[in-house]
Amino acid sequence: MRVLILGAGTAGCVLAARLSEEPGTEVVLLEAGPHYAPGRWPLELSHAYRIIKETHDWNYLAQAGASPRLVHVPRGRVVGGSSVTNGAIALRGLPKHYDEWSEFVDGYDWQSMLPWFCAIENDGQFPSADYHGDSGPIAINRYPRGEWYPLLEAFAAAALERGHPWIDDHNAPGAIGVGPVPFNMVEGIRQTPADHYLAPALERPNLTLISRITADTIRLDAGRASHVEALGEDGERQRFEADQVILCLGTYASPALLMRSGVGPPEAIRPHGIPVIHPVEAVGRGMQDHPKVSYRFWVSTEIPEWPNPWIQGLLTATCEVDGERRLFQVMPYSGTTEGGHNFTDFNIQVADARGRTGRVDIQGPDPRLQPVLRMGWLEREDDRALADGAGRELMALSQTSPLADAITPWPNQGDLDHPLRTVETFHHPVGTCRMGRESDPTAVVDGAGRLFGLDGLYVMDASIIPRVPSANTHLCVIALAERLAAGFRDAGRG
After folding, report:
1. Which of 118, 221, 222, 257 to pair with 472, CA 20 to 30 A apart?
2. Is the pTM value of this prediction over 0.85?
């Protein structure tokens, strides 16, 4: 069997490694970005100290949602994908939000995902906990509170003064409070699926990685994916035959590729002169993401010299919205110096976001054209209310000692328009090829990633997640890819 995987991001690296463990399976992995061997990463990609936007990025722009602004939504263009350019934050989110997956697709909930979370990690601080792993490929570590920078220690002390509890492990089920951030890193170096899944697997003769090539269209023959056409950097068109095709291009690019291939909403495809091969209204629709609302402060404490960690601790908390406790997070950054001014951003993550109005469209059949992205942030009134409530708590924290002695807020951050003026992505888009039941018109794939109504075509990346977790999606995507790979292999043996 020949399996073609499109996209060597987080999911693609995991799937390529696991599927190539079967000697009888030939795996070909295509990636638009460059490939770096372990230990040969450019400096800006090797460390885990901030999100990398200047290089190895797709440079996507998106319409923000309730705000009319265009904003940059970073996505990594490199083998390893956004796992190589993100902030290396390794959070899972609360179990109850995984339990909500069962409302959309059978067989998924927190208890079904927990073994996969444990299998992928090697937790440096809590290896013996029954909800952690100690021998997985991805190392997880936290900065102990005694090593925190003065500003971040002042934030934690103010949160405790405000009545928020201290928690040692933000990945413990039900963890709400202030405590250290878990990272997938060792001594500041990010630990990625590119290094710890794909690199060892590339020693196998049945796995081939082809980088610097862009998937264009999937060709269908009698209702089955037969081959993929792709463009090299020189514009030369190449053809790749396959028995099975798996999309791992991510929440923005996977639905765009389907639409270029004639799979998706007819009204989104026909205007570009593309024949509708398989109408699926839900492709590119129903996107969820965590809105980020930024608050800026002047800083009177010492700013650490670069390169150093940008974040060490965070607050997970709730506020009441329409009689319900809704979750948010505050991530305080260690600060920066520009033009003689010391300042920092404290960012709110609207963790329990409910909006599903984000969408992906295409500009035309050329794969070099960016997808058209509408994020849908804060378009729901209750999401805006959650952002407002979280902002009020952050401003109260900023006025609580010892944090109040270390920072001074920039003006006009308390008005009702502040969330809309500053909202951006927290880099966790999901749901544009959502998995669900075949009877659900808003679903695209089943719980195994199979696209409804077509043979030999799968989607196995963040785009199929039915409900955004209440935290960063990186660990979630690794765990989900492991689970899907195991199911794919079992089905092949059946």
Report:
1. 257
2. yes
Structure tokens at 412: 């006009």
Q: How far apart are CA 182 and CA 163, in angstroms?
A: 22
Tell the CATH topology of 143-180+291-352+379-422.
Cholesterol Oxidase; domain 2 (3.30.410)
49 phi and psi angles, rounded to 5 deg: -100, -10
The whole-angstrom separation of Cα 6 and Cα 381 is: 37
For the chain, residues classed under CATH 3.30.410.40 are: 143-180+291-352+379-422
Which parts of the chain register pLDDT below 70? 494
Residues comprising the chain, all counted: 494
In tens, the pLDDT along 25-75 reads: 999 999 999 999 998 999 889 887 888 888 999 999 999 988 888 999 999
Q: Give the class (CATH, top level) of 2-139+190-283+430-493.
A: alpha beta
